[in-house]
Amino acid sequence: PPGYPAAWPVLDVLTNWPSDDPDPRPSIYQGLCVFDHETEYEKAKNYREAEVPFVVRDDAEVLRTAERWNTEGYMRRLLGPVPHRTEYSPDNHFMYWMSPNANKKKGKKNRNNKNPRKVPIRQPEGWTPPTKMIRMPYDEWLAHANVTDDMLGPDNPHWYYRLIGCGEMGKCDRDSSEYLFDEVTIFQPRQNNLYMVEPERQKGIHCRFGMKGVTAENHFDGSRNFIAIFGGERRYILSHPNQCQSLALFPKGHPSARHSAVDWSDPDLDEFPQFRDARVNEVVMQAGDVLYLPTNWFHFIVSLELNFQCNSRSGISMEYMKPINECGF
Questions:
Q1: Distance CA 68, CA 184 (A)
Q2: Per-residue pLDDT band at 115 (split at 50, 70, 90)
Q3: Per-residue H/E/C for the chain
Q4: What is the Cα–Cα distance from 245 to 251, expressed in whole angstroms?
Q5: CA distance linking residue 98 with residue 263, whole number of Å
């Protein structure tokens, strides 16, 4: 429909529910449609074809995975003692970053790159990585994550756990978790799958396990994305790509390019006055929910409790390239 999804001033949304507070609110600024998988499947397909965000709920295939993953002891048996990627932050804020040394590692590949839009990563003066990359087994992560609220404040350390099933990408991660294709069957790259727009262009399955209070800073991804919750709850704050200028992104070449430079828990409106003009909507996702994010849509994520989330990408749509290009990307 015209004007979908509805959006509101970001400061109103953050005043009603500050991002550092994971406790639920009686009312939120929800702008997305939520479709029942059994009775509103065709509506969901139409919204996907229109390249707009929406949520699908009560898909039996999703619920079966959620039931398994929340069975006591199942995840311990599934993951075993293998260490996996884990991000550590001294507080609850997590922002993706690429090491400036990645330019040196790519070496010859970078020198021969004929794409003029590629920009080398440069380390700004005074910049330090916002998180530390480590590896640990699931049980160790769970010991950090499954703690009482007095140990979960925004100024306390947080850990963000990650699994990757590489699939057709090949060996994309040490100790890759190819069993995810058997566990998260909705993301198998097959035709006539609501969650795979272009299955031949699937980019693996990526799972992130969040502890309560973890916030993933606002950013956009350059491909279609379906995101499923298999345990716990997450809050997603979404922005249309045409909000790019107001979100004050780190530019191309910055280690955290594509991410908002604004601290959403305490916005500095003197440094980023344009942020007051940004418009957003939000949705709380529960176990069994699946969110569709079209190419280049912005999202800011808050873990409301310990949770399991997996996503998969399949191709790129061109509908939202113009505002992102005008924003310098």
A1: 11
A2: very low
A3: CCCCCCCEEHHHHHHHCCCCCCCCCCCCCCCCCEEECCCCHHHHHHHHHCCCCEEEECCHHHHHHHHHHCCCCHHHHHHCCCCEEEEEECCCEECCCCCCCHHHHHCHHHHCCCCCCCCCCCCCCCCCCCCEEEEECHHHHHHHHCCCHHHCCCCCCEEEEEEEECHHHCCCCCCCCCCHHHHCHHHCCCCCCCCCCCHHHECCEEEEEECCCCEEEEEECCCCEEEEEEECEEEEEEECHHHHHHHCECCCCCCCCCEECCCCCCCCCCCCHHHHHCEEEEEEEECCCEEEECCCCEEEEEECCCEEEEEEEECCCCCCHHHHHHCCC
A4: 11
A5: 19
Rounded to an integer, what distance in angstroms lies between the CA atom of residue 72 and that of residue 51? 38
CA nearest to 267, candidates 304, 237, 235: 237
Lowest mean pLDDT of 73-87, 117-131, 225-239, name the range.
Answer: 117-131
Distance CA 232, CA 254 (A): 33
- Find all residues with CB under 8 Å of 40, minimum gap 6, and list them: none
For residues 9 and 274, the answer to whether their CB atoms sit within 8 Å is no
Structure tokens that stand for 43 in this block: 């509506």
Beta-bridged to residue 89, according to DSSP, are 158
Q: Nearest-CA neighbor of 178 among 204, 159, 208?
A: 204
Q: pTM surpassing 0.90? A: yes
Tokens of 54: 């929406």
Q: Report the alpha-carbon distance of residue 294 to residue 173 in Å, rounded.
A: 25
Per the CB < 8 A criterion, the answer to whether 251 and 257 are in contact is: yes
State pLDDT tens for residues 35-88.
999 999 999 999 999 999 999 999 999 999 999 999 999 999 999 999 999 999
Q: Residue 144 has which token pair? A: 């950090």
Which two three-digit tokens encode residue 260? 């908002």
What is the token pair recorded at 155?
């100024």
